[in-house]
Amino acid sequence: MRATIGLLVCGFLLGATAQAAFLDEDTHVVRVDVVYDDEAGGESSWGGELGFGMAVFPRTELGLLAQYAQNDVRIFRLAGLYLEESMNLWGPLYPFLGVGAGYAWMDSDEAGDNSTWVGRLAGGLRIVLSERWSVSLSALFYLSKSDIFLRDGPEDVIDRQLQFSAGIRFCY
User: Fold this and answer.
1) In angstroms, rounded to a whole number, what is the distance separating the alpha carbons of residues 53 and 27?
2) DSSP character at residue 90
3) pLDDT digits (tens, 9 = 90+) for 99-126
4) The whole model's pTM is what?
5) Domains and CATH numbers, the chain
6) CB–CB of 120/130 below 8 Å?
7) C-alpha dihedral over 8, 13, 18, 19, to 10 degrees?
8) DSSP string of 101-124?
9) What is the gyration radius of the CA atoms in the chain, in angstroms?
10) Cα–Cα–Cα angle for 41, 45, 47, nearest 5°?
11) What pairs with residue 171 in β-bridges?
12) Is the Cβ–Cβ distance between 31 and 23 less than 8 Å?
Protein backbone atom coordinates (compact mmCIF):
# COMPACT_ATOMS: atom_id res chain seq x y z
CA MET A 1 0.00 0.00 0.00
CA ARG A 2 2.79 2.43 0.87
CA ALA A 3 4.56 1.59 -2.38
CA THR A 4 1.38 2.34 -4.34
CA ILE A 5 0.87 5.69 -2.60
CA GLY A 6 4.54 6.55 -3.14
CA LEU A 7 4.27 5.66 -6.82
CA LEU A 8 1.17 7.86 -7.21
CA VAL A 9 2.85 10.82 -5.48
CA CYS A 10 5.96 10.43 -7.64
CA GLY A 11 3.78 10.24 -10.76
CA PHE A 12 1.97 13.46 -9.84
CA LEU A 13 5.24 15.25 -9.12
CA LEU A 14 6.73 14.02 -12.40
CA GLY A 15 3.58 15.00 -14.28
CA ALA A 16 3.69 18.46 -12.72
CA THR A 17 7.15 19.03 -14.18
CA ALA A 18 6.35 17.69 -17.67
CA GLN A 19 5.36 20.30 -20.21
CA ALA A 20 2.40 18.73 -22.01
CA ALA A 21 2.75 18.92 -25.77
CA PHE A 22 -1.00 19.47 -26.23
CA LEU A 23 -0.62 22.90 -24.60
CA ASP A 24 1.40 24.23 -27.51
CA GLU A 25 -0.13 25.65 -30.66
CA ASP A 26 0.46 23.58 -33.81
CA THR A 27 0.60 20.32 -31.85
CA HIS A 28 -1.12 17.32 -33.45
CA VAL A 29 -3.02 14.75 -31.41
CA VAL A 30 -4.02 11.14 -32.01
CA ARG A 31 -6.54 9.80 -29.51
CA VAL A 32 -8.02 6.36 -28.96
CA ASP A 33 -10.91 5.83 -26.53
CA VAL A 34 -12.94 2.89 -25.30
CA VAL A 35 -16.62 3.89 -25.14
CA TYR A 36 -19.26 2.38 -22.81
CA ASP A 37 -23.05 2.81 -22.86
CA ASP A 38 -25.00 0.82 -20.26
CA GLU A 39 -28.46 1.32 -21.81
CA ALA A 40 -28.00 0.65 -25.51
CA GLY A 41 -31.07 -1.35 -26.46
CA GLY A 42 -31.52 -2.75 -22.97
CA GLU A 43 -27.98 -4.10 -22.67
CA SER A 44 -24.53 -2.62 -22.33
CA SER A 45 -22.58 -1.61 -25.40
CA TRP A 46 -18.83 -1.30 -25.90
CA GLY A 47 -17.09 0.46 -28.72
CA GLY A 48 -14.20 2.62 -29.75
CA GLU A 49 -13.53 6.17 -30.78
CA LEU A 50 -10.63 7.41 -32.87
CA GLY A 51 -9.76 11.09 -33.14
CA PHE A 52 -7.21 13.26 -34.93
CA GLY A 53 -6.82 16.81 -33.68
CA MET A 54 -4.68 19.89 -33.70
CA ALA A 55 -4.11 22.55 -31.04
CA VAL A 56 -5.44 25.78 -32.53
CA PHE A 57 -4.67 27.80 -29.38
CA PRO A 58 -2.82 26.76 -26.23
CA ARG A 59 -4.98 24.07 -24.54
CA THR A 60 -7.65 24.27 -27.27
CA GLU A 61 -7.98 21.29 -29.60
CA LEU A 62 -10.01 21.02 -32.82
CA GLY A 63 -10.34 17.69 -34.57
CA LEU A 64 -12.15 14.91 -36.39
CA LEU A 65 -13.58 11.86 -34.68
CA ALA A 66 -15.12 8.53 -35.62
CA GLN A 67 -16.97 6.20 -33.24
CA TYR A 68 -18.20 2.63 -33.56
CA ALA A 69 -20.17 0.78 -30.86
CA GLN A 70 -22.02 -2.52 -31.08
CA ASN A 71 -23.98 -5.05 -29.04
CA ASP A 72 -26.47 -7.81 -29.93
CA VAL A 73 -29.28 -5.30 -30.48
CA ARG A 74 -27.76 -2.46 -32.49
CA ILE A 75 -24.71 -0.99 -34.25
CA PHE A 76 -23.95 2.72 -33.73
CA ARG A 77 -21.56 4.75 -35.90
CA LEU A 78 -20.64 8.44 -35.73
CA ALA A 79 -18.38 10.76 -37.75
CA GLY A 80 -17.89 14.36 -36.68
CA LEU A 81 -15.90 17.34 -35.46
CA TYR A 82 -14.97 18.24 -31.89
CA LEU A 83 -13.57 21.25 -30.04
CA GLU A 84 -12.11 20.83 -26.54
CA GLU A 85 -10.73 23.38 -24.07
CA SER A 86 -8.63 22.16 -21.15
CA MET A 87 -7.29 23.99 -18.11
CA ASN A 88 -4.58 23.09 -15.62
CA LEU A 89 -6.12 22.24 -12.25
CA TRP A 90 -3.03 21.06 -10.43
CA GLY A 91 0.12 19.33 -11.63
CA PRO A 92 -0.79 16.76 -14.28
CA LEU A 93 -4.59 17.18 -13.90
CA TYR A 94 -6.35 18.95 -16.76
CA PRO A 95 -10.17 19.07 -16.66
CA PHE A 96 -11.70 19.72 -20.07
CA LEU A 97 -15.01 20.66 -21.68
CA GLY A 98 -15.91 20.07 -25.29
CA VAL A 99 -18.57 20.48 -27.94
CA GLY A 100 -19.00 18.72 -31.22
CA ALA A 101 -21.31 17.85 -34.07
CA GLY A 102 -21.52 14.97 -36.46
CA TYR A 103 -23.59 12.51 -38.41
CA ALA A 104 -24.73 9.28 -36.71
CA TRP A 105 -26.10 5.98 -38.02
CA MET A 106 -27.91 3.30 -36.03
CA ASP A 107 -28.57 -0.14 -37.52
CA SER A 108 -30.96 -2.41 -35.65
CA ASP A 109 -32.91 -5.46 -36.83
CA GLU A 110 -35.55 -4.80 -34.16
CA ALA A 111 -35.92 -1.00 -34.34
CA GLY A 112 -34.93 -0.39 -37.94
CA ASP A 113 -32.17 1.77 -39.35
CA ASN A 114 -31.89 5.49 -38.75
CA SER A 115 -29.44 8.31 -39.33
CA THR A 116 -29.33 11.99 -38.38
CA TRP A 117 -27.16 14.93 -37.35
CA VAL A 118 -26.21 14.97 -33.66
CA GLY A 119 -24.67 17.44 -31.24
CA ARG A 120 -22.18 16.40 -28.57
CA LEU A 121 -21.19 17.79 -25.17
CA ALA A 122 -18.16 16.34 -23.42
CA GLY A 123 -16.52 16.81 -20.06
CA GLY A 124 -13.76 14.97 -18.33
CA LEU A 125 -10.32 14.83 -16.82
CA ARG A 126 -7.03 14.42 -18.67
CA ILE A 127 -3.98 13.19 -16.74
CA VAL A 128 -0.64 14.10 -18.33
CA LEU A 129 1.85 11.24 -18.10
CA SER A 130 4.71 12.81 -20.07
CA GLU A 131 5.40 15.46 -22.67
CA ARG A 132 3.74 13.30 -25.35
CA TRP A 133 1.30 10.95 -23.54
CA SER A 134 -1.85 11.48 -21.50
CA VAL A 135 -4.91 9.48 -20.44
CA SER A 136 -8.46 10.74 -20.08
CA LEU A 137 -11.82 9.87 -18.54
CA SER A 138 -14.90 11.44 -20.14
CA ALA A 139 -18.67 11.69 -20.08
CA LEU A 140 -20.24 12.22 -23.52
CA PHE A 141 -23.79 13.50 -24.01
CA TYR A 142 -25.40 13.33 -27.46
CA LEU A 143 -28.56 15.11 -28.59
CA SER A 144 -30.36 14.91 -31.95
CA LYS A 145 -33.46 16.32 -33.61
CA SER A 146 -34.77 12.86 -34.43
CA ASP A 147 -34.95 9.62 -32.46
CA ILE A 148 -31.81 7.63 -33.19
CA PHE A 149 -30.59 6.28 -29.85
CA LEU A 150 -31.97 2.88 -28.89
CA ARG A 151 -32.67 2.47 -25.17
CA ASP A 152 -34.70 -0.35 -23.61
CA GLY A 153 -35.90 -2.07 -26.76
CA PRO A 154 -37.16 -1.48 -30.29
CA GLU A 155 -40.12 0.59 -29.05
CA ASP A 156 -37.89 2.93 -27.00
CA VAL A 157 -35.86 5.00 -29.46
CA ILE A 158 -35.02 8.48 -28.11
CA ASP A 159 -33.18 11.65 -29.11
CA ARG A 160 -30.39 11.71 -26.47
CA GLN A 161 -27.69 9.40 -25.14
CA LEU A 162 -25.06 9.41 -22.38
CA GLN A 163 -21.81 7.50 -22.80
CA PHE A 164 -18.61 7.16 -20.81
CA SER A 165 -15.12 6.76 -22.21
CA ALA A 166 -11.53 6.18 -21.18
CA GLY A 167 -8.66 6.74 -23.53
CA ILE A 168 -5.10 7.57 -24.30
CA ARG A 169 -3.69 10.30 -26.49
CA PHE A 170 -0.36 10.89 -28.16
CA CYS A 171 0.82 14.41 -29.05
CA TYR A 172 3.43 15.19 -31.71
Assistant:
1) 8
2) B
3) 999 998 887 776 667 788 889 999 999 9
4) 0.77
5) 2-171 (2.40.160.20)
6) no
7) 110
8) EEEEEEE-TTT--EEEEEEEEEEE
9) 18
10) 140
11) 29
12) no
